[in-house]
Design goal:
Layout (H helix, E strand, L loop, with lengths): L5 H8 L3 H9 L7 E2 L5 E2 L2 H15 L4 H8 L5 H36 L7 H45 L2 H25 E4 L6 E2 L3 H6 L6 E5 L6 E8 L4
Antiparallel strand pairs: 1-2, 3-4, 3-6, 5-6
Helix pairs in contact: 1-2, 5-6, 6-7
Length: 240
């Protein structure tokens, strides 16, 4: 039967000598025998065990789990549970990494729109990114309430043109006006704006916000703190 030295078993398994020595010190790869000169000699079974250890380490299993697994009388009953748990942990790590990557991509994208780079501008971007879920929820609430009214609008227009039923359009007007008032009040009550000059989060008057020139993410307002007049970034208002 073949015998392998520490260096030979390390080479066959594609690891360093120190790795083999470490597994020996942890008691999970004990050599089959010692030579007369005190050299560690590993058997074919030891080589197979080492390959199993390397495989489990590649899957990310910690040394303690591998040690526990190899000490079991029936390791087959334990390995499926360990692998299942490891799979969950790895998926969680992947999700976390994907989240971080997404934030980095967002930050890079937002920085392209910053004319003058500063620590405060990164703070504004970070706040906007963390605030997006709340702002999206506000938009979704308006959409869900407004969807039936939009359906009524187009349905009434089609029926007026094709059937001459003008009264359905009149009903839509009666419903749409109160909705427009409520929707505007709800929206501007729940949003605020970041001044690009002093980085203050402020709340404009309803009248100013309603009539201001705007883009999907900004609105041209006058900062209540420093008086700067320009496009300010829209964010969801902090819940009180």
């Amino acid at each position: 039967m073949s015998k392998y030295t520490t260096g030979e078993i390390a080479k066959l398994c594609g690891v360093t000598v120190r790795t083999v020595q470490y597994y020996d010190s942890r008691g999970i790869l004990i050599p089959a025998e010692l030579s007369e000169g005190g050299r560690r000699l590993y058997s074919e079974d030891d080589l197979k065990r080492m390959r199993i250890i390397c495989f489990l380490r590649e899957l990310g299993l910690p040394i303690d789990s591998i040690s526990q697994l190899l000490s079991e009388d029936d390791p087959g009953s334990v390995i499926s549970l360990l692998l299942e748990q490891q799979e969950k942990d790895m998926k969680m790590e992947i999700n976390e990494c994907e989240e971080k990557l997404h934030k980095l991509e967002e930050l890079k994208s937002e920085l392209k729109n910053v004319k003058e780079f500063s620590v405060e501008s990164i703070g504004d971007i970070a706040y906007t990114m963390s605030n997006k879920k709340r702002l999206k929820r506000i938009h979704m609430n308006l959409l869900m309430v407004g969807l039936p009214i939009n359906i009524l609008q187009w349905g009434s227009i089609i029926l007026w043109i094709t059937k001459g039923f003008w009264w359905l359009f009149a009903i839509w007007v009666v419903v749409a006006i109160p909705y427009g008032i409520w929707g505007s009040q709800y929206y501007f009550k729940n949003v605020a704006y970041i001044c690009p000059q002093c980085h203050t989060i402020f709340k404009p008057t309803f009248k100013e916000a309603f009539f201001a020139n705007h883009t999907p993410a900004t609105r041209k307002l006058t900062c209540t703190s420093c008086g700067h007049h320009g496009f300010c970034v829209e964010v969801a208002r902090e819940e009180e």
